[in-house]
Design brief:
By secondary structure, the chain is α+β, with helices and mostly antiparallel strands. Helices cover about 35% and strands about 20% of the residues. The chain folds into three domains: about 10-65, no CATH class; about 95-160, no CATH class; about 170-265, Ubiquitin-like (UB roll) (Roll). It contains seven helices and eight strands, in the order ααβββαααββββαβα. About 20% of the residues are buried. The mean pLDDT is about 90. One of its GO terms (molecular function) is nucleic acid binding.
């Protein structure tokens, strides 16, 4: 069994202590070896034997050499810049229902960074499902052109660089607020959460935390009902954040442009 953990500490000394304490506790009480360490700080990695580091870091000069990409929770992590990035498969999939589903599923995005892009692919897939019966049936020329146009936009994703940290110096902030937005259309519903912090001087910082989008049902739902479903989705991602984020949130604020949703909550 293999488990990956990603965490942060305010200082390199705290990071080393946490890693060593956890490593010793797992060895003593569970006969488990905690290893394959990677960090954006060379001094943290230097505190461990080479055999404890990630396999592609063992033979490097940690102070001078550029570090290769790491995989963290399914995402690519550039430890040199401390950014997440996306590496897409270069494999050309057939322009069929099966090939398109495979392409969409290859976009692993658990935090919702790419939700606005992926939802467009899912909407196109729903259209394709309504037009074709067989999984390997070629698409119509019009639909194939739509698919190629969407697929070509994926190239830009590889240029994205997303900071791993929510905001700079999180441990030194004085207030932490969660701002959660929801919206809906006839095609999809979505919600996104941002962390807003302020420091002792009142300087604000804002960072993306989590986003989620879903394809709306094809019939039987009015816009007000979909707006309400989006608001429910906002509450759900908020609960996920509160349950999993080791951080005290001072205030949670929800935003919607739907008067129906606002009226129901007054």
């Amino acid at each position: 069994m293999s488990t990956t953990v990603l965490t942060s500490c305010p200082t390199k000394e705290e990071a080393v202590k946490l890693m060593k304490d956890t490593q010793q506790a797992l060895a003593k009480y569970g006969n488990l070896r905690l290893h394959k360490f990677a960090s954006n700080c060379a001094e943290v990695m230097s505190a461990f034997h080479a055999s404890d580091l990630a396999s592609n870091l063992k033979d490097l000069d940690l102070e001078c050499d550029s570090k290769p990409l790491q995989r963290s929770l399914g995402l690519s992590w550039d430890v040199n810049t401390d950014n997440f990035l996306f590496q897409l498969s270069s494999e050309n999939k057939p322009i069929t229902r099966r090939g398109i589903l495979s392409t969409i599923n290859s976009l692993y995005d658990p935090l919702g960074f790419l939700a606005p892009v992926i939802i467009q692919g899912k909407l196109l897939l729903r259209k394709i499902v309504s037009e074709t019966v067989d999984w390997d049936q070629p698409l119509t020329d019009e639909t194939a052109d739509e698919w190629k146009s969407w697929r070509d936009t994926l190239i830009a994703i590889e240029t994205l660089r997303i900071p791993r940290t929510y905001v700079p110096y999180l441990s030194k902030t004085t207030t932490k607020e969660l701002h959660v937005f929801s919206d809906a259309s006839e095609k999809a519903i979505a919600a996104v959460a941002y962390l807003r912090t302020t420091d002792s001087s009142g300087e604000p910082n804002i960072g993306f935390i989590l986003g989620k989008a879903k394809v709306a049902p094809t019939s039987g739902h009015t816009i007000p009902r979909l707006e309400l479903s989006a608001a429910v989705l906002a509450v759900e991602i908020t609960q996920t954040i509160v349950d999993n984020l080791d951080l005290h949130i001072d205030t949670v604020k929800f935003y919607t442009d739907s008067k129906v949703v606002l009226g129901l909550h007054q």
